[in-house]
Design brief:
This protein is an alpha/beta fold and about 300 residues long. The chain has 7 helices and 8 strands. Strands 1-2-4-3-5-8-6-7 form an 8-stranded mixed beta sheet, sandwiched between helices. It is globular and about 50 Å long. The mean pLDDT is about 95.
Length: about 300
């Protein structure tokens, strides 16, 4: 469950490189648009949800991608999952998905949950644009992840997975970016549900890779790739999927179809006091750490896609 390849970065994190500084600035712009200018975005604020979808679409199109829209109905509205892909070379039928939900829960602008995940996905799409790997890479923005749609047929990722299953798609890995923008070097800044406090640090300065037991190989691959390339603390766990916190994002939908999938997260409410609150604003995000994490996750995706 807890043994991972490599070692977590444990010394001072170096200053940002020029590449990471550009990532930093782009992340800040994306989060500022989604959680600042657009703000709360869900079926109770349909114009804002549509504005967020449009922003994601235009950003991806500006990078040279062709955006595919999967429309579905929810609460008498037509919502959109947005998808772009980099076709694979030698194994194009094998698919790696990097996804993030762009809706926010009612009552919050959702800077960390989950503009941070969407921003990182957009930046990784920029970093990889025009490249070719063995496997196909897809970037997907999902609607309707938050309650009351979680675990339902109206959850955007559930709609997406139903189509993938119908098509017989060979999804080899799905990575869900979920609440990845808050870090702290303070002691006792990190909490866990029982029994994880026995195995993991009490300082919330790391990015977490979380999967169920069936996805344990993917967890280890992702952690190993991240640690090999990135000077930033990281932790991983493969645990029973029913345990508290392990299933809290779009990767859950992929588990239902027996696809290997993991969540990448700053652990959300176990660290972030503004989780699901009106105070989850763009100023709360640690963009320096998020930039370092984003570049490291790009390496994870390319490692998985190059196999």
């Amino acid at each position: 469950m807890t043994a991972m390849p490599g070692k977590s970065w444990s010394t001072t994190v170096p200053p940002l490189s020029s590449q990471e500084q550009l990532i930093h600035d782009n992340l800040k712009r994306h989060v500022g648009m989604l959680a600042g200018q657009i703000g709360e975005r869900n079926v109770w604020h349909p114009e804002a949800l549509a504005a967020a979808a449009l922003y994601i679409r235009q950003t991806l199109e500006d990078l040279g991608y062709e955006v595919h829209i999967q429309s579905f109905e929810s609460r008498d509205l037509t919502l959109q999952n947005l998808e772009v892909e980099l076709p694979g070379d030698s194994a194009p039928q094998e698919i790696i998905i990097l996804g993030a939900h762009y809706d926010s829960i009612s009552g919050t602008p959702g800077a960390n949950d989950n503009a941070s995940g969407v921003a990182a996905m957009l930046e990784i799409a920029r970093l990889l644009a025009g490249s070719t790997y063995s496997r196909t890479i897809r970037f997907v923005a999902f609607a309707n992840e938050e309650p009351p749609f979680f675990y339902s047929e109206e959850m955007g990722s559930s709609v997406y997975v139903a189509r993938s299953r119908q098509r017989g798609e060979q999804i080899k890995a799905m990575l869900a970016l979920e609440t990845i923008g808050y870090y702290s070097d303070q002691p006792d800044s990190q909490y866990y549900p029982i029994p994880f406090s026995l195995f993991y640090p009490d300082i919330g300065n790391f990015i977490g890779f979380v999967g169920n037991l069936s996805s344990r190989r993917l967890v280890r691959q992702a952690v190993g790739a991240f640690r090999a390339s990135t000077q930033f603390p990281s932790e991983g766990v493969a645990a029973p999927g029913w345990m508290m916190g392990v299933h809290w994002s779009d990767h859950w939908s992929f588990w239902q179809a027996d696809y290997p999938a993991i969540m990448i997260t700053d652990t959300a409410l176990f660290r972030y006091q503004h989780y699901h609150a009106v105070t989850d604003t763009p100023k709360k995000i640690d963009y320096r750490s998020l930039a370092r994490v984003t570049l490291g996750l790009a390496d994870v995706v390319t490692e998985l896609a190059g196999q």
